[in-house]
Design goal:
mainly alpha, 4 helices, about 80 residues, single chain, elongated
Amino acid sequence: MAILRLLSGSAEITAALIMLRLNQVDKALAVNSALALVGPTVLVLTTAIGLTGMAQNLSPSKLCWVAAGVSCLLIGILKK
């Protein structure tokens, strides 16, 4: 999980440097739009890794609460 977060952070910093180098709003918006795909993907992957690791230690009812919370996050992120 930590490696995914490090890669995500590195992608964010690299995108910021590219935006500064391009120095044009329209091109920076394109870079930002491409970067918008990285965030939710990393969120889903790290959550999945964490849930698989914790699934052994949680009771089924607690696991349902965690799944409900993750579902609410994804609905909030992906709903237009």
